[in-house]
Amino acid sequence: MANEKQREFWSGKGGDNWVEHQTSMDHMLGPLGERALNKLDPVAGENILDMGCGTGATTLAIANRVGTSGSVSGADISEPMLTLAQQRAKDAELDHVTFQNVDIQSHAFETDCFDAAFSRFGVMFFDKPVEAFTNVFRSLGAGGRLAFVCWQSPAKNPWQSLATQTLSSLIELPVPTPERGPGPFAFQESDYVCDILSSAGFDAIELSNHEQMLAMYPGMTLPKTVEAYMSINPALRAMIAEMPEENRTNIVDALVEAFRPYHSDRGLVLESATSVVTARKSTD
Question: What is the CATH number for 273?
Answer without folding.
Answer: 3.40.50.150
